[in-house]
Amino acid sequence: MSSTTESHTDQDEPAERTPPNKPNPVTPSGIEVPVVATPDMVDFANVGEPGQYPFTRGIFENGFRGRLWTIRQYSGFGTAEESNERYRFLLDQGQTGLSVALDLPTQCGYDPIDPMARAEVGKVGVSLSNLAEVELLFDGIDVGSISTSFTINGTASISYAMYCAVADKQGVPREKLTGTIQNDILKEYVARGTWIFPVKPSMRLIADTILFSNQQTPRFNAISIAGAHVRDAGCTAVEEMGYTLANGLAYTDELIRRGGDVEKFARRLSFFFYVHMDFFEEICKFRAGRRLWAKLMKERYGVEDPKAQMFRFGVVCGGSSLIGSQPHNNIVRVGTETMAAVLGGAQSIFTCAFDEAFQIPTEHSAEIALRTQQIIAHESGIARTVDPLGGSYYVEWLTDQMEAGMMQVIDEIEQYGGVEKAVEDGWLQMKIAQRASERKRAADTGETVIVGQNYYRRDDQNEGIGEVFKLDPQATAKVVEKYERVLDTRDSAAAERSLAALEKAAADDGENLMPYLIDCCHAYATVGEMIATLKGQWGEFEEPVRL
Amino acid sequence: MSLKGKRILIAKPGLDGHDVGAKIIALALRDAGADVIYTGLRKSPDYIARVAVDEDVDAVGLSMLSGSHKEIVADTVQCLEALDAADIKIFVGGTIPTDDHAGLIAAGVCGIYTAEMTIDDVLAAIDKELAA
User: Fold this and answer.
1) Per-residue model confidence as pLDDT tens digits over A220-271
2) DSSP per residue over A10-49, as a string?
3) pLDDT per residue over B62-93, tens digit each?
4) A433 and chain B: CB distance < 8 Å anywhere?
């Protein structure tokens, strides 16, 4: 990164600091950008046509002309009933897909009464410890006619089993289910922390969900390979994509090992990223990642079907690019990021609410986030023609640069011994912690400009946020009460039988665990019980603590 | 700065897995000369208190981003008291709404350090607390 700190070394009065009155010539990924891009810097033969290999210009030949992206807002908190109410509100407002946030006990495999769970029930999402809660969550909502995304990883196979079981209960054929489970455990070891089992059995469980889904819920995405969290943890855009593609390759290898046909399963692999503020870097990140993935599929695995070469992705606009000071400025950030996502060719977009940096969004802030997408979709006109930036000297040059950087990241991991080894050793975790420190220092010194935080501050800047969303203080008690009622009323012998069958299947690497998990759900076995059963067979991940 | 030789435990209580802030502070304290122990994820207040006592630390830093800071701070204070170690200082970081700051201070926390502070300001604040 270039040094631009000399003009603002006065640490005593940061409130009055203004940044240098010219742009930093180096992107956040460390790419030095020319003053002007020229045709001789680009090999246009690499670009190709929209809807054709290598898909630089997008996976559809008509871009968004056939259909706009899916507007998908993340919500879910407290009890299943409260979340159900919010979902019905969002569906009424024109939202086209639901997104379920789960509380940490559900994500880590603890029931609401577990001592590890007590302080966290219903805090960052909804508690779904058993099928009865999932039935409440989708009460009055036809799961055959909506698309639902679950942000869940360590226990994703169970959430997916619950969704299949709810479909069974509603009388909806499983093949009608659409949606996504995140189900990307590799990045959990690195950045988000909801791992449960050691790496190998975790990889098996993920492969099982994908292979089962290919057969029984062919329109459902059983994995969303996510770069978002390593990005928020401190990576650059190039590293975010490089690590994510490396994880995608690791899952591909595991699926092939378990007998999957890459031409089939690769059609349902999907990806998930954050969009941060550097506009052209973000656009080119998606163009470059899409092209590189297609090349890897074709060149490494011999994939011929274009649908299995296609890189499909959803995004979140916001994340750590949103800040707590002068929070209304975040609306502008999210708007900018949304345009980058559209120009990068995203299939689904979630826009963060401006207050998300410090609280669960209120109905008001959530509505502004939704309207932001609708304004860009219907007023701005940027979705009118396919890849409108394609052929721009700068955009194509930057796409090339970023693709080369991503390939370097993948090579480095493979030279280390692969992703699985890198996370088992804590090597990747350590690298990301170092990146996070560098990024924080760059913000502290003012090398990175953050309006309202390290420049253009004012004393009263956190005023006027408006209403604050408050969780129902009784939420935990209500969840526990419902949980105990389920345990009291279920057929305990049936639950025990289903768990015993799961235990036996877990010990046999040749079994696919999904049918057993769905049976457990139908028998009202709980998440905690299913996870404890699997832990008994597989043990737990031992976190390598390296600094 | 007199952080050199201070023993500090950085801990991740509860189920929250966002450990970047904890690691940034742990690395910065180490660079400033402190002896830093980092617990890793998902530790109970009881475990954290026992490690703090066993390792004879001067302070415990709790990193929390999931909204359960009130319960976790109360439990940690109680566990330290039960081990006769109420002299070990507790500071917290993460996503801590301003409305909750006074309550945490009253519960026995010596400092609340959020992402908007610079690393140097956080180090200076910890230094001041440990010198007092």
Assistant:
1) 999 999 998 899 888 999 999 999 999 999 999 999 999 999 999 999 999 9
2) -TT-GGG----SS--SB-TTSPBPPSS--GGG--GGGT--
3) 999 888 899 999 999 999 999 999 999 999 99
4) yes
Q: What is the pLDDT of residues A407-417, one digit of tens each?
A: 999 999 999 99
How many domains are contained in chain A? 1
Say whether A359 and B97 touch across the interface (CB within 8 A).
Answer: yes
CA distance B52 to B48: 6
- For residue range A46-76, list pLDDT tens digits in order: 999 999 999 999 999 999 999 999 887 766 5
Chain A interface includes B40 (CB < 8 A): yes
Q: Which of A352-366, A369-383, A442-456, B15-29 has the lowest mean pLDDT?
A: A352-366
- How far B17 CA lies from chain A's nearest CA (Å)? 4
**Does residue A523 fall inside a structural domain?**
no
**A279-301 vs A237-257: helix axis angle to the nearest 10?**
30
- A7 lies in some domain: no
A164-198 in b/e burial notation, b at 16+ Cβ within 10 A? bbbbeeeebebeebbbbbbbbbbbbbbbbbbbbbb
- Angle between helices B69-82 and B45-54 in degrees, nearest 10: 40
Structural domain range at position A379? 55-445
Question: Checking phi first, is residue A76 left (phi over 0); if not, alpha (psi -120 to 50) or beta?
Answer: left
Rounded Cα–Cα distance for residues A268 and A272 (Å): 13
Whether A176 is in a domain gets the answer yes
| CA gap A243, A230 in Å, rounded | 8
**Residues composing chain B:** 132
Nearest neighbour of B40 by CB, restricted to A108, A191, A545: A545
| Residue pair A292/A403 in contact by the 8 Å Cβ criterion | yes
CA atoms A12, A15, A21, A25: torsion sign: positive
- The CA distance from A536 to A538, in Å, is 6
CATH number at A301 reads 3.20.20.240
By CB neighbour count within 10 A (0-12 exposed, 13-18 middle, 19+ buried), where does A532 fall? middle
Average of pLDDT values for A308-331? 92
- Distance from the Cα of residue A134 to its chain's centroid: 21
Between positions 271 and 330 of A, the ones with CB within 8 A of B are 323-325
In terms of Cα–Cα distance, which of A55, A37, A38 is closest to A46?
Answer: A55
CA distance readout (Å), B50 to A482, A525, B17, B34: 34, 35, 21, 20
* B39 touching chain A per CB within 8 A: yes
Q: What is the DSSP string of A245-312?
A: HHHHHHHHHHHHHTT--HHHHGGG-EEEEEE-S-HHHHHHHHHHHHHHHHHHHHHHH----HHHH--E
The domains found in chain B, sorted by start residue, are: 7-131 (3.40.50.280)
Report which secondary-structure segment, H or E, holds A498: helix A492-506
Residue type, A200: K
